[in-house]
Design a protein that fits this description.
With about 200 residues, this protein is an alpha+beta fold. It is about 45% helix and about 15% strand. The protein has two domains: about 1-40, no CATH class; about 50-195, no CATH class. It has helices at about 1-20, 20-35, 40, 105-120, 145-160, 165-175, 185-195; strands spanning about 45-50, 50-55, 75-80, 80-90, 145, 175, 180. The chain is globular. The chain has a three-stranded antiparallel β-sheet.
């Protein structure tokens, strides 16, 4: 009896929601998502000492040598000095989307050439993984490939005064399949592991 009532309630509820306009029943779906998937519906937030410091879904712009860096991001924001212009704002979730630069775009070619020179100086003699040169479709990708992570190990280990093997161990612990897990979580684990800060 209980199953039949629950089933009828769900069918009737979904049918009722389906008859309403989209904006009328969005709050219902959001409520269902918060019940079924509370972490994901809440933005997959990452906390440190009770404070929200990021999301599992959105990369962050790490620039210090002691941190693993994510993929390049081409997102922009309005220039505060001139609202008719834009300025680079990496991982700006409000302006998600690729740069739409074609393979012959001078700005894209110049950026990639500059990134190659910078990355080769960081780890001479090692080919630069493509994921450290190209943006993702959303420009918000929080993950990097293992090849990209291992390319960055010498820089991170040197900046933290840690043995490379210890940093590689942290990379292995953060690996999910072929991908390094979320770059922010790896950087947090390294902070917790110690070494020069």
């Amino acid at each position: 009896m209980y199953r039949e009532c629950t089933r009828e309630f769900l069918i009737e509820g979904l049918a009722t929601l389906g008859r309403k306009r989209k904006h009328d029943f969005e709050p219902y779906w959001e409520a269902v998502a918060h019940v079924l998937f509370p972490h994901q519906a809440g933005g997959s937030r990452i906390r440190k000492n009770g404070k929200i410091i990021g999301s599992e879904l959105i990369g962050q712009n790490f620039t210090a040598d002691k941190y693993f860096h994510g993929r390049p991001s081409a997102t922009t924001d309005t220039d505060p000095k001139d609202p008719t212009e834009t300025i680079p704002a990496p991982y700006n979730a409000v302006n998600s989307g690729g740069s739409n630069s074609g393979p012959t775009a001078k700005s894209l070619i110049d950026r990639i050439k500059g990134d190659i020179v910078r990355r080769k100086a960081e780890n001479p003699g090692t080919p630069v993984p493509v994921h450290l040169l190209t943006t993702s479709a959303s420009d918000l990708d929080p993950d990097i490939t293992l090849a990209a992570a291992f390319f960055e190990v010498p820089r991170v280990a040197k900046a933290r005064n840690l043995p490379e093997e210890r940093v590689k161990q942290r990379v292995a612990e953060a690996t999910v399949g072929r991908w390094l897990g979320i770059t922010l979580k790896l950087n947090m684990a390294l902070d917790a592991a110690g070494g020069k800060q």
